[in-house]
Amino acid sequence: MEQVVVPIKLANVPSNGITTADMTITYDASKLEYVKGEAGSIVINPSINFAINKEKDGIIRILFLDDTLLNEYISKDGGICKYHI
Fold first, then answer.
1. CA dihedral 19, 12, 4, 24 (to 10 degrees)
2. 61 has pLDDT over 90
3. Residue 65: count of CB within 10 angstroms of its CB
4. Can you name the residues that pair with 63 across neighbouring β-strands?
5. DSSP state letters, the chain
6. Distances 70 to 40, 44, 50, 80 between C-alpha atoms, Å
7. CA-to-CA distance for 67 and 69, rounded, in angstroms?
8. Interval 6-55: pLDDT, tens
9. Sheet of 20-26, strands arranged across
10. What is the pTM of this model?
11. CA trace torsion 35, 29, 8, 70 (10° rounding)
């Protein structure tokens, strides 16, 4: 079975940054299987500030939250995460 890595990138991040993001990604579960997900390079302290999980076949949920609400926000364009299918 071949794996594909799908990057999720943010562009035009505002100058005051992003402190929270909540995303839902849907995919055709009859053709693809979610394997894993991981934080991207613009996520500071991902073990605290980032989560990705498969809610059910066909739906992936991604959450970013700057737990400090001070200095671990997303401050630049780039990859927030990637997931393997």
1. 50
2. yes
3. 16
4. 22, 51
5. ----EEEEEE-S--TT-BSEEEEEEE--TTT----EEEE-TT-SSHHHHEEEEEEETTEEEEEEE-TTSSS-SB-SSEEEEEEE-
6. 20, 12, 16, 18
7. 6
8. 999 999 999 999 999 999 999 999 999 999 999 999 999 999 999 999 99
9. 20-26, 59-65, 50-56
10. 0.87
11. -80
65 token code pair: 């939250």
Residue with tokens 């001070």: 70
Extract the tokens encoding 19.
């402190």
Pairing outcome for strands 78-84 and 36-39 = antiparallel
